[in-house]
Design goal:
The protein is mostly helical and 115 residues long. The protein has one domain. Helix content is 51%, strand content 9%. Strands 1-2 form a two-stranded antiparallel sheet. A hairpin with a 5-residue loop joins strand 1 and strand 2. The mean pLDDT is 87.
């Protein structure tokens, strides 16, 4: 069971300001790993285009680093998300009004034109 893991992850979200910011990974001793947002599927906000995509994007970054040793690519994603937030693209859970789609589009633009 993962009851205590769920409780700790919910409490840790206070540090980042939102569950929407936290990636997660479940590693097998031998075999594949699973990377996903820490918050699950958030069915209460499904189809509203308001979910914070940071946890999913950061889960991809984590996967690139931990499973594929693609450090440069992971760093590019992390830098793009940081620049996106620094320029004021924030979803509702962080006090902004950017949609899921617009945030993700901006991250892609930052990756393409980023450092």
């Amino acid at each position: 069971e993962n009851l205590f893991g769920d409780i700790l992850s919910d409490e840790a979200s206070v540090i980042t300001g939102s569950l929407g910011m936290l990636p997660s990974a479940s590693h097998a001793e031998n075999g594949p790993s699973l990377y996903e947002p820490i918050h699950g599927s958030a069915p209460d906000i499904a189809n509203q285009n308001i979910a914070n995509p940071m946890s999913m994007i950061s889960s991809v970054s984590m996967m690139l680093r931990q499973s594929f040793s693609l450090f440069k690519e992971a760093d590019a994603i992390d830098a793009a998300t940081a620049r996106t937030m620094q320029t004021g693209f924030l979803t509702a859970d962080l006090g902004g009004n950017t949609s899921t789609t617009d945030f993700t589009t901006e991250v892609l633009k930052q990756i393409e034109g980023g450092e």
